[in-house]
Design brief:
Blueprint (H helix, E strand, L loop, with lengths): L1 E5 L9 H13 L4 E7 L8 E4 L2 E6 L12 H9 L5 E5 L4 H8 L5 E5 L9 H20 L2 E4 L2 H10 L7 E3 L12 H6 L6 E6 L8 H8 L6 E6 L5 H11 L5 E4 L4 H10 L2 E4 L8 H8 L4 E4 L13 E4 L5 H11 L13 H15 L1
Parallel strand pairs: 1-2, 1-5, 2-4, 5-6, 6-7, 7-8, 9-10, 9-12, 10-11, 12-13, 13-14
Antiparallel strand pairs: 3-4
């Protein structure tokens, strides 16, 4: 069986969708012929690359402000190809999934929308409504839909004309092998600093500005490490400079998986105050690294809160309360969360979906 995984971006880019597609592809490749079809707006990465048993094909795309990923060349490639038994597309919020849906032929079409119902910026949110008739066609063409959280599943059923019988709930996973040396890594941490960690795209909806404002309320021993890139970085830099905390913030991007795992492990608290998340993979990885988390009581992040290892905060964000919570959470012992699944379990469930549609 030959499977195409279609997604807007792929490693070395970092993100939840990118990690999801990478982790399932390398495991599916042990049994099937797998190709990842993705885009490369800058055209700087290899057009064809062999990676851990599967092939990555990258296509030129239009991606203003790192969004949309409209790729006529990917569309033409899919339209001319009849070799895939299953085309599995990812992310409602960009065009590659629409390319995959509109070029469907004899193949079965599986869709993981990673859908959170909003655009990632004011302009993109305005475009969200006119895009919906097009986006609905992706759901219409799907033989199976995989949602990663109850929140996402309920949102999809409410917003689209979807038969609930083809909707499957399969959460994201964690590669536990990557976290087996966590205790050793933690012991090497500089104990003179208290590290607040953020991992993800630098977008306004992620709520990172509130973390910067809270940092200004905390003692100088607290520093903020930001892993990721995106159009909102310049806003964060300006805010931090105005508040006098820019020297306590470190920015990182394009880290290797090992380097990212070390960031998770050495952090004292992980904070994600996003308003729109279909799952929150960075929260899962922080917990696997035994780092306590603070999340917004919004979207799928609400499902993580347990008051033991993951602590929720309400919008509108109260900066004084957030700063106090960050201080109080440092040193919290993380308990095992039942929501954490290994990627092997996730892939086993995905394979059952594939077999069902075939």
């Amino acid at each position: 069986m030959k499977i195409a995984q279609v997604c807007p971006r792929f490693p070395p880019h970092i993100g939840g969708v990118e990690t999801h597609v990478y982790e399932i592809s390398k495991r599916l490749a042990k049994e099937f012929d797998v190709e990842v079809l993705t885009t490369d707006p800058a055209g700087k990465l290899a057009k064809v690359e062999e990676m851990e048993g599967f092939t990555v094909r990258r296509f030129k795309s239009l991606a203003p402000s790192d969004s949309y990923y409209l790729s006529p060349s990917l569309h033409r490639y899919l339209k001319g190809s009849r070799e895939y038994n299953i085309v599995h597309a990812h992310s409602y919020h960009a065009f590659p999934a629409l390319h995959a849906a509109m070029t469907k032929k004899e193949n079965k079409f599986v869709f993981t929308p990673h859908y959170h119902g909003k655009g990632h910026s004011f302009v993109r949110n305005l475009l969200h409504k006119p895009y919906k008739p097009l986006g609905s066609k992706i759901f219409d063409k799907a033989d199976a839909i995989i949602c990663v959280s109850e929140y996402e599943k309920n949102l999809v059923l409410r917003n689209f004309n979807v038969n609930e019988r083809i909707v499957h709930l399969i959460p994201n996973g964690v590669n536990f092998d990557e976290f087996k040396d966590i205790e050793k890594i933690k012991k090497s941490k500089d104990s003179s600093k208290k590290v607040i960690l953020y991992v993800g795209r630098l977008e306004k909806y992620k709520g990172l500005e509130y973390v910067v404002e809270a940092l200004a309320k905390l003692d100088s021993e607290f520093i903020l490490e930001i892993v990721g890139k995106g159009p909102y970085k310049q806003n964060i830099v300006k805010l931090a400079n105005r508040l006098g905390v820019l020297n306590r913030i470190c920015f990182y991007q394009d880290l290797s998986r090992r380097e990212l795992i070390e960031k998770y492990a050495k952090a004292d608290v992980f904070v994600l105050l996003s308003k729109h998340e279909a799952y929150g993979l960075a929260v899962a990885e922080a917990l696997a690294a035994k780092t306590p988390c603070i999340v917004a009581n919004e979207a799928a992040l609400r499902e993580w809160g347990d008051g033991k290892s993951v602590f929720g905060v309400d919008y509108p964000i109260n900066i004084e309360k957030l700063a106090k919570l960050i201080k109080d959470v440092v040193g919290t012992e993380v308990v095992r969360n039942n929501k954490l699944l290994g990627w092997e379990d996730v892939v086993a469930q995905i394979k059952r979906v594939y077999r069902d549609v075939l």
